[in-house]
Amino acid sequence: MARPSVRHLIQKTGTKLFTERGFHACSVQDITDAAGVPKGSFYNHFLSKETLAAEILIAYGQGSTDRSILTNPEVPALIRLKKHFAALNDYFSKCDEGCLVGKFMADVSDNTPQIRKSLISVLNLWGKQISSAITEGQKQGSIRKDLKADDLAAFLIDAYEGAILRTRVEKKPRALKAFVKIVFSSIAV
User: Fold this and answer.
1) What's the predicted TM-score (pTM) here?
2) pLDDT of 76-87, one tens digit each?
3) HSE value, Cβ hemisphere, 13 Å, CA-based, for 74
């Protein structure tokens, strides 16, 4: 079995530590120590901790959970959205650390422009995926039409991130279940 590259090892370790601790509570030294690589190796692959975090966020946003259900034209749009959030609920009910995007949103500041840019990119990607399904559901007549698809998608993402945070605090998935129950009874026609 091939040994992972140092770059990959740093990314994997950084993802784990950022998810557990957040951006500001994790140093380059923490990452390199946990990865078992010299600190100098970090700077051979990344300009800064923020550069690493920005890359990790983009990768996380593209693949933390299977988002392909949102674009499957074989499945009615409302069902796609329900399956998507059911999969997220399953994932985040078992994940004590919560969502990396939510953690970074709490950490972002004017001093972390690369992270802010990556967060916006991920939120826009997720928004487009969800908005597309909502638009199709509106055309199919299964989702209410009095709300703009983009606005509704942004609201769903924002509310779901809040539900994930509450789930971490309460140590039970009540907020995730309530999100699904309330959202789908509110948007379905």
Assistant:
1) 0.90
2) 999 999 999 999
3) 2
C-beta neighbour count of 183 within 10 angstroms: 19
Task: State pLDDT tens for residues 98-151.
Answer: 889 998 998 888 889 999 999 999 999 999 999 999 999 999 999 999 999 999
The CB density around residue 139, as the number of other CB atoms within 10 Å, is: 12
**Are the C-beta atoms of 8 and 52 separated by less than 8 Å?**
no
CA angle 86–158–118, rounded 5-degree value? 100
The Cα–Cα gap between 187 and 81 comes to 11
Q: Which sign, positive or negative, has the C-alpha torsion 101, 104, 105, 108?
A: negative
Cβ within 8 Å of residue 23, ≥6 positions away: 49, 50, 53, 103, 104, 107, 112, 115
